[in-house]
Every structure is written in structure tokens, then in C-alpha cells.
């Protein structure tokens, strides 16, 4: 079958697009790697209407349940390639006129009349030595997952965003000391997070400083053991008289990079940061292709679950209008 | 569904197993763990008879967590012949996991 709209990405933007698409009676399929997307990494969400206090995982699951209940199909995997059919159909590629063929990472193929890209971002890496080596051995990109392993230990958290500050506060429930290291002069999180961080006696903020190396226990004077793990970090300027800061772990919360690599073959327009350029109606430069959420240049204004949802809803409406215009011309 | 491993049965069920064993170290508080769970179950079905697959709740089995230096969830560790031969940290796709463990079947 040919879907009316195929949604790539299963975070708030994609799931909300599916909810609206179903209500427009558009047949739709959501293909995404992580059900719930980036919000699943948030231990506490207090700014999504209807929920005073909910975990990111639960919020994501509720959105997925709602999308499914309204008729969306959801496939949990990644998309590797998209091919656009020719204007008048293409005998060679066997794609219907103006339709898209979507090929997944396991080689499954689908056809759709329109697309909504809502693939969000992938976690940004620090890009320092030791980061890969000690992944799972003290280096983590998920405070929600790994904070409980730091009971009565010391942790470094790199970043200054909402995610970084809320992560530091979550860590403070377990660790005895947290160094929040940020490259700028002031934290960029919402004031409500910044105030909480500054008031927490376990958290010390180190401003205008970068982590330049992640070191193992053996490299900071400890006894090197089998299955070496994090023992410290090297800083680009001294803190308390030393460039080496001892820590049991390093959490990295420095945002994401847009995940649009698989779209290269479509000649879609990106901005210089790799975000998909969209207009007011979440349309891209390619007719029939819409985008929503953190993968778009609109997320540079605000990248939150609530704005991603709003963009998903608009994208679904735009896909609906686009499909209507197709039937009018044919 | 796969097996459930604990501090108590780990030696018998994992270390002394004739088949290689893939252990899913998970926690109830962890979002990506909940996402990985159905993937691990699919692998258990697909690899039935070739490898044994099971879960270990890190809250319930602190000794094994300590012994294998698990500091992150989800973590998948493949055991063969009584030792850990491959460790995968974080959420991974099914294909990715199968590729990583295929050398050890």
C-alpha cells in the first residue's frame, strides 16, 4: 500500500504529527529508533501542559499510546534512504508518480505520498580523548539512567542548558559532589533551573572552563585496575590551583546535532548548522516533504517537547492540505 | 521472554552456561532501558538455541554490577566460557547488536 503520510522520527514532534494525521483520516506510519525520542532522557518534565510533574519516559509512552489508539502504525527502527519518484512515474524505480520510497536500516521498503521528517538530534560529543574509551566506565550521556550509580561519589557534568542543570540536580540526589563545568560566563538554562542549581550545596559551577581530556584512575595517581575507569578530567584552565580535577564520572549534556544525514539524496535544504530549513507551515524546499521538531531550524528559537508537538501538528495539517491539492490537480 | 539473572543464580546460569549468554543490565528508572527491552526480547527469539538471553536488574544484584564494573544502563554484556567477551553501552538497534555479537556465536 501507499501511505498518505510517512513520519520519520518517534519523539514528540513525530508522534503529534501522527495524532493529527490520523484525525485528518490520513493513513500514516511512524518509523523511529527511540519511542518518545529525546524527552525520554528527561527525569522530570514540569512544563508540559496537562501534567504537573511527569517523567520523560512516561510522557513519551503516553504520546505513543495516544497515536496508536488513533490509528498510527509505529515501527521501531531507523531509515537509511529516501528516493523520490519522478513526476510522471518512473518505470525503472517502480515508484508511483511524486511518491517517496523509504528504505529502512533492515531493508524494509515503504511508499508514501508525503513525508514528515521529525528525527530530532543525536547527542553531541565533547570530542576529547578518553570520551569513547570510558563510555560506560564513568562517561555517560544520560543522567537519568546513570545518576544512581554515583551514590556518595563525585561527578563532573559538562554543559549549561536546561538538560544540564536538571541533570545536575538529579545527580545531587545521589552524588556527594557535582562540578558543573560550562564554557560561558552564565548558565543558559531557564532561571528556575539556574536558581535551583545555585542553591544546591552539592553543586559547584565552574564557569568559562572546558574539559580537554578525560583521564582514567591510573592517570591521576590511583591504582590502575583491569577495566580501567574514569578518575579525573583535565581542564583548559586551573581550578583551585590545578588543571586536573578528580572525579568518578563525566556526564556530557551539551545538546545535540540534527539527524538529517539520510536526507542527503533528496537535495533538501539545510542551514549551515545542518538543521532542515522550514517555512511557516513547516514545509521544506521539496513539495510533499515537511519537517518538525529539533531537526528543523525552527528549533533554534526553542527546542522543547511542547514546541516540537506544535510543529508536528502544523506539519500534519500541511501534509493534509498538500494531499488535497494533489487530488485537485489530478 | 528470556531468563532473569541475579547475584544468586549468575554463576550457574551465566558463567557455567554451555551457550554464550547475553545479559541485559537494566534499571526500572531508565528510559532507554525500557526502549531496549523489546529489542533484546526479539534477539532472544531470533537466536534461540544459539545464545541464551536474559535480564539483570541492577537494583537487585549489586554484587554482579560491582564485579563487572557496570556504571551505566542499559549495558549489554556477552559472556562466553565464564568470562565477559563483549560489552555494549547505551541504546542500540537490533541489527547493531546482532552485528557486534555475531563474532562470538
Low-confidence regions of chain B: none
CATH class of the largest domain in chain A: Alpha Beta
Task: Give a quick account of the main beta sheet of chain B: strands, pairing sense, barrel closure.
Answer: 5 strands, mixed
Inertia-based shape of chain B: globular
Separation of termini of chain B? 20 Å
- Quaternary state reads heterodimer
Biggest chain contact? A-B, 32 and 25 residues
- Using the 3D structure, state the CATH architecture of the largest domain in chain A: 3-Layer(bba) Sandwich
Task: Indicate the radius of gyration of chain A in whole angstroms.
Answer: 22 Å
Question: Can you walk me through this structure?
Answer:
The complex is a heterodimer of chains A (330) and B (105). Chain A has 330 residues and is α/β, with parallel strands linked by helices. Helices cover 23% and strands 25% of the residues of chain A. Chain A folds into two domains: 2-122 and 256-329, FAD/NAD(P)-binding domain (3-Layer(bba) Sandwich), CATH 3.50.50.60; 125-252, FAD/NAD(P)-binding domain (3-Layer(bba) Sandwich), CATH 3.50.50.60. Chain A contains six helices and 17 strands. Chain A is elongated, with a radius of gyration of 22 Å. Chain A starts with a strand and ends with a helix. The mean pLDDT of chain A is 93. With 105 residues, chain B is α/β, with parallel strands linked by helices. Chain B has a single domain, classed as Glutaredoxin, CATH 3.40.30.10. The two termini of chain B are 20 Å apart. The mean pLDDT of chain B is 91. The A-B interface holds A 33-36, 40-41, 43, 55-57, 60-61, 76-78, 105-106, 135-138, 140-142, 144-146, 148-149, 227, 229, 249 and B 27, 29-35, 38-39, 68-75, 87, 89-91, 93-95.
Amino acid at each position: 500500500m501507499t501511505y498518505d503520510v510517512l513520519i520519520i522520527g518517534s519523539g514528540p514532534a513525530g508522534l503529534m504529527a501522527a495524532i493529527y494525521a490520523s484525525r485528518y483520516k490520513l493513513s500514516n506510519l511512524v518509523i523511529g529508533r527511540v519511542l518518545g525520542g529525546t524527552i525520554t532522557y528527561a527525569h522530570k518534565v514540569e512544563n508540559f501542559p496537562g501534567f504537573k510533574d511527569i517523567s520523560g519516559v512516561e510522557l513519551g509512552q503516553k504520546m505513543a499510546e495516544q497515536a496508536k489508539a488513533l490509528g498510527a502504525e509505529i515501527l521501531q527502527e531507523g531509515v537509511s534512504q529516501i528516493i523520490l519518484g519522478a513526476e510522471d512515474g518512473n518505470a525503472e524505480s517502480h515508484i508511483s508518480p511524486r511518491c517517496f520510497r523509504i528504505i529502512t536500516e533492515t531493508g524494509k521498503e515503504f511508499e508514501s505520498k508525503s513525508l514528515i521528517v521529525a528525527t530530532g538530534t543525536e547527542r553531541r560529543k565533547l570530542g576529547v580523548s578518553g570520551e569513547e574509551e570510558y563510555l560506560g566506565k564513568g562517561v555517560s550521556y544520560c543522567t537519568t539512567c546513570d545518576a544512581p550509580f554515583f551514590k556518595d561519589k563525585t561527578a563532573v557534568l559538562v554543559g549549561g542548558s536546561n538538560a544540564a542543570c536538571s541533570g545536575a540536580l538529579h545527580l545531587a540526589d545521589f552524588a556527594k559532589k557535582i562540578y558543573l563545568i560550562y564554557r560561558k560566563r552564565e548558565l543558559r538554562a531557564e532561571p528556575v533551573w539556574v536558581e535551583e542549581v545555585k542553591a544546591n550545596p552539592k553543586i559547584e559551577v565552574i564557569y568559562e572552563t572546558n574539559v580537554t581530556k578525560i583521564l582514567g584512575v591510573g592517570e591521576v595517581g590511583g591504582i590502575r585496575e583491569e577495566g580501567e575507569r574514569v578518575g579525573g578530567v583535565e581542564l583548559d584552565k586551573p581550578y583551585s590551583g590545578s588543571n586536573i580535577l578528580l572525579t568518578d564520572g563525566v556526564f556530557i549534556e551539551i545538546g545535540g546535532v540534527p539527524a538529517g544525514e539520510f536526507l542527503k539524496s533528496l537535495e533538501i535544504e539545510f542551514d549551515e548548522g545542518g538543521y532542515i530549513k522550514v517555512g511557516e507551515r513547516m514545509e521544506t524546499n521539496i513539495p510533499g516533504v515537511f519537517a518538525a521538531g529539533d531537526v528543523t531550524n525552527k528549533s533554534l528559537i526553542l527546542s522543547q517537547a511542547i514546541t516540537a508537538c506544535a510543529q508536528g501538528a502544523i506539519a500534519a495539517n500541511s501534509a493534509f492540505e498538500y494531499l488535497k491539492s494533489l487530488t485537485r490537480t489530478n | 521472554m528470556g531468563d532473569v539473572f541475579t547475584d544468586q543464580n549468575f554463576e550457574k546460569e551465566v558463567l557455567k552456561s554451555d551457550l554464550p549468554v547475553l545479559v541485559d543490565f537494566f534499571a526500572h528508572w531508565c528510559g532507554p532501558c525500557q526502549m531496549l527491552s523489546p529489542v533484546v526480547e526479539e534477539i532472544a527469539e531470533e537466536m534461540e538455541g544459539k545464545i541464551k538471553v536474559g535480564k539483570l536488574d541492577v537494583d537487585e544484584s549489586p554484587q554482579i554490577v560491582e564485579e563487572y564494573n557496570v556504571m551505566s544502563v542499559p549495558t549489554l554484556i556477552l559472556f562466553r566460557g565464564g568470562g565477559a567477551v563483549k560489552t555494549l553501552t547505551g541504546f542500540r538497534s537490533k541489527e547493531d547488536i546482532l552485528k557486534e555479537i555475531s563474532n562470538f556465536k
